[in-house]
Amino acid sequence: MFFHVQKLINEIVPDEPDPAAANALQEGLGGQFGEMRTMMQYLFQSFNFRGKAKPYLDLIQGIGVEEISHVELIATTINRLLDGSPRYRGEIPANGATPLNIALKEGNIHHFLVGAQGALPIDAAGNPWSGSYVYSSGNLVLDLLNNLVLEATGRLQKCRLYEMTNNKTARSTIAYLIVRDEVHEKAYAKALETLGVQWGKILPIPKFDASKLPEVKRLMDMGLHNQLHHWRLDGSEMGKIFQGPSPAQDGTLTTTQKPPEGAPIKLSEARPEEFSPGLTPELERLIQQIEAVKV
């Protein structure tokens, strides 16, 4: 079973909304190599895991649980990039007003038409996320190999996303995911090394000096590129694998016992022009009664 803390795994830096950047980030959420796939792939691999190889199960499952937070983070980032886009005040439609006219000019119209200025389980081209993306073969080595390719491709695409926008909201999340994808590359590479496969000469993928990206460098200076948390309340054997020299030869790997501090989640504002949440005075009174209930 899983527990939830109502915090984001990383802070989202505020900036002006940008619907085009929001649509680009949809690839990192619902694309073939996005966060929804990594989450589902690692969780299903852990659900289907067989045999006495618990350190490998704990590694795959621990990363899968972290990916749940990544889905939450990138979806929330997309929401911030859409909310009130750009610089307009929500208003109740009257006298033929067109407060949603921006939907015809930038980004993905479905963000406004279907999602009420919210993230959707789709890629940047509007294709729905598919369970067929998930690779779970039941063979440990094959699964680890596929996971490494998945993380490397995801990191490659996020580096490209970084180069597409200078929006601070988008970049704060993209930079964080670039760093975490590299950690996950190292985790799966380390697991393969324990099984006799050597990856040191090619990692990380893409191979470049990530410290040249200011937002990424700040996170690397904090050591986040070599840290992995196990996300277990009852103990984990992940640290038997994720330890020692990094496969990328850039420091020492550490399995942390304390989870990330996290950042507060700010509830999104009501958007009358989207009829969201569409509360009438009567419904608001009913909600206030529920909020007054003592538990």
UniProtKB/TrEMBL annotation:
Region named Disordered: 240-280
Entry keyword annotation includes Calcium: yes
Keywords: Calcium, Manganese, Metal-binding
N-terminal signal peptide: none
GO MF terms held by the record: metal ion binding
Residues annotated as binding Mn(2+): E35, E67, H70, E151, H184
Protein's name in the database: Catalase
